[in-house]
UniProtKB/TrEMBL annotation:
<feature type="domain" description="Glycosyltransferase 2-like">
    <location>
        <begin position="6"/>
        <end position="161"/>
    </location>
</feature>
<comment type="similarity">
    <text>Belongs to the glycosyltransferase 2 family.</text>
</comment>
<dbReference type="InterPro" id="IPR001173">
    <property type="entry name" value="Glyco_trans_2-like"/>
</dbReference>
<dbReference type="Pfam" id="PF00535">
    <property type="entry name" value="Glycos_transf_2"/>
</dbReference>
<keyword id="KW-0808">Transferase</keyword>
<protein>
    <submittedName>
        <fullName>Glycosyltransferase</fullName>
    </submittedName>
</protein>
<dbReference type="GO" id="GO:0016740">
    <property type="term" value="F:transferase activity"/>
</dbReference>
<dbReference type="InterPro" id="IPR029044">
    <property type="entry name" value="Nucleotide-diphossugar_trans"/>
</dbReference>
Length: 297
């Protein structure tokens, strides 16, 4: 008999977090739960932590080709009718899995469920809500409102839509949601189900420019164009990382000029043109940034 649910965790040198991750799964007290960890050959205390759970979980620790590769191995190993993917520094909140399983049981036509989530710090402290909204595929192209650890899907999804794109390092989850959602809508569970950890060393904060560049390239490959919102997000990251700031009127005006130049370059790079409405939009930024400077002069 297959497990009711499999939780797949990719791991690499997350010894200081992984026990909290695994405990957040087992504390759900779900009968018929399968826990799978694919570790990329960690050199910290991760393997020791995994060993401590004995036969309560399955794990492999060996060199891999990156996070997507580890997750895909876990997906293919999973025997559960429902699969969750929880990174080794994230956590589930109490009662999350039972709530998800109830929805899957009640609505057999639902293939993918996503819930709400928080950003949490290294000590599990609340930072902020992860922005989430009801299902809207058009909006999903413009903003990734789905928090990865808050997603659960039927195993049949893998048979229909495949596994993660292993060529992607940062936005493999976003590409996966877009690929599935193009064919079938997701169910929104209006409940917080997970905590997604933010700290200086993690990929989200530690590689902001690379993350946004990969997202823009992925969207361009998939749809032939990149939404303006993602262009502006990338441009903001580039300008901020160049050392520009908005601490006073003069510096804000310089920031805005740099942002406009960078945005225009990004539009040309990804979309081959700068739409007229976006030129007007950027001119509006410049006009607003100049107002205080004139008043102060």
């Amino acid at each position: 008999m297959n497990p009711r649910i499999s939780i797949v965790t990719p791991s690499y040198n997350q010894g200081k977090f992984i026990k909290r991750t695994i405990d957040s799964v087992f504390d759900q007290e779900i009968e018929g739960l399968e826990m799978i960890v694919f570790d990329g050959g960690s050199t910290d205390e991760t393997v020791e932590v995994l060993e401590s759970y004995g036969d309560r979980l399955f794990y492999v620790s060996e060199k891999d080709k990156g996070q997507s590769d580890a997750i895909n191995k876990g997906f293919l190993k999973a025997r559960g009718d429902v699969i969750g993917w929880l990174n080794s520094d994230d956590v589930y909140y109490p009662g999350s899995i039972s709530a998800v399983l109830e929805i899957f049981a009640k609505y057999p036509e639902v293939d993918v469920i996503y819930g709400k989530a928080d950003h949490i710090d290294e000590e599990d402290g609340y930072i902020e809500d992860y922005y989430t909204e009801s299902w809207d595929y058009g909006k999903l192209k413009e903003i990734c409102f789905i928090c990865q650890p808050a997603v659960f899907f039927r195993r049949s999804v893998l048979e229909k839509y495949g596994v993660l794109n292993a060529a992607l390092r940062f936005c493999m989850d976003y590409e996966f949601w877009l690929r599935i959602g193009q064919k079938k809508g997701f169910y929104f569970l209006d409940q917080k189900v997970a905590g997604s950890r933010l700290y200086a060393e993690n990929k989200t904060l530690g590689s902001r420019r690379k993350v946004h560049e990969e997202i823009c390239s992925m969207l361009n490959d998939k749809f032939g164009t990149v939404p303006a919102r993602w262009i502006y997000n990338l441009a903001h990251v580039i300008v901020e990382e160049s050392g520009e700031s908005r601490e006073n009127v003069e510096r804000n005006l310089r920031f805005v000029k740099s942002l406009i130049r960078t945005s225009a370059k990004c539009f040309l790079k990804y979309n081959k043109k700068v739409p007229l409405n976006e030129i007007r939009n950027m001119f509006g930024w410049y006009r607003e940034a100049k107002k205080p400077a004139k008043g102060g002069g």
